[in-house]
Amino acid sequence: MRRLWALLTKEFIQMRRDRLTFGMMVMLPIIQLLLFGFAINTDVKHLSTIVFDQSLQQDSRDLLGALTASEYFDIKYAAKDFQEVTDSIERGKTKVGIIIPPDYAENLKHGRSATVQVIVDASDSMAASSAIASAQMIGQIKSQEILVKRLQGVTGKQVAPPVDIRIRPWYNPDFVSAFYMVPGILGIILTMTMVMITSMAIVRERERGTLEQLIVTPMKSHELMLGKIIPYIFVGYVQATLALLVGALAFDVPLRGSIGLLYGLTTFFIVASLSLGALISTVAKTQMQAMQMAFFVFLPSTLLSGFMFPREAMPAFFYHLGYLLPITYYLEILRGIMLKGIGINFLWSQVMALTVYILVALTISVIKFQKKIA
C-alpha cells in the first residue's frame, strides 16, 4: 500500500507540473459541450421556401398559413411560374418549393381531391425528411378539417373524427435536441480523454526511460498499473462534474434520477475506459501509435454507440459490434438516470457488462505488462 501511495503521489505531482495537459482536460468538456450542444440540432425548422400559388383564393392562403405556422417552412419567395421554382431550388436559394394548382379552391368546393405539389431538395436528407414529414402531417390535418366541416354541413350535427390518436411523448416531450445530445457528449468526452491520456501516459514513461526506473523498484506490476489509472479517475470526475454543470446551466438538461447513483455508475465507465487505455499502452511502442490506436477506439464509439445515430437502424453486425464498446452501456445509464429518472434495478445489466469489461481489459493489461518487463 505504501508503494502504491508513493506512486500515486508521484503521478499527482507530475500532473500538476504538466499544466497544459491538465488545462486541456478541464477545459475540453466545457468547450465541446457548448460547441456540440448549440451546433447539433436534429430538429430542422425554418426551411427556406418558394411558393407558386396559381389559385390565389382563401383556401390556398389558409393552407400556406398552416405551413408557415408550423415553423418548418419560411415562405420567402412567390414564383411567377414553375421554372422559377426549379431555378430557385437548383441554385440553392430555397430548400422547398410549393406549387398550388389553379383549380385548388374549385376542387375543394365541389368535394373533389385537390393536389398540391411539394418539391424538396433531398441532397440534405435530414432537412428533406423533416420537410416531407411536416408537409404530410399538415396535409392530413387540413384534409381532416375539411371532411369534418363537410359532414357537419350535411348532417347538421357535431362530427368527431373516427380515429383519435393521442400521442404522449415521455421524458422529452418538447423534443429538445440538447437533452439527447448532452449526455452523449459527456460519454464521448470521457472516452476520448480517459483512453487517450492513459495510453499515452504509460508509453511516455517508456519513451523517457522512467518506466525502467519504476520497474526496478519493489513495486509489483499490478500496483504500477493501478498507480497509473487511479489519478485519472479523479480527472474523470472533474470532467463529468463540469459537463453536468454546463448541461444544466446552458441547456437546462434535467437530472431526474439520483445524482449519487449517476456518479457511482460513472466510476464503472471511467475505470473501463482507463483499462482500455492501459491495454493500448501495453501494445503501442510510441506515443504516436498510442494516439492512433485511441482514435481507432474513438471513431466507432462515436458512430456505433447510439451517440449520433439510433442503433436500432443499424445492420445486425454493426448493432452487435456496438456492444463491444463501453460507451454503449454508459449512454444507456446516462440517459436512463438523467432523462427517465430510473434506478439501479433497470441498469444492473449495463453495470454487469462494464464490470466484465474492466476485469477482462485490466487482466490482459497486467499479463501483457508482466511479459514486457520479464
TrEMBL record:
It holds the Pfam family ABC2_membrane_3. It is a multi-pass membrane protein. One of its GO terms (molecular function) is ABC-type transporter activity. The keyword Transport applies. Keywords: Cell membrane, Membrane, Transmembrane, Transmembrane helix, Transport. GO terms for cellular component: plasma membrane. Residues 135-372 form the ABC transmembrane type-2 domain. The keyword Aminoacyl-tRNA synthetase does not apply. The chain crosses the membrane at residues 20-40, 178-203, 229-251, 257-281, 293-310, 316-334, 346-367. PROSITE patterns: ABC_TM2 (PS51012). It is found in: Cell membrane. Belongs to the ABC-2 integral membrane protein family. This is Transporter. It comes from Anaerosporomusa subterranea.
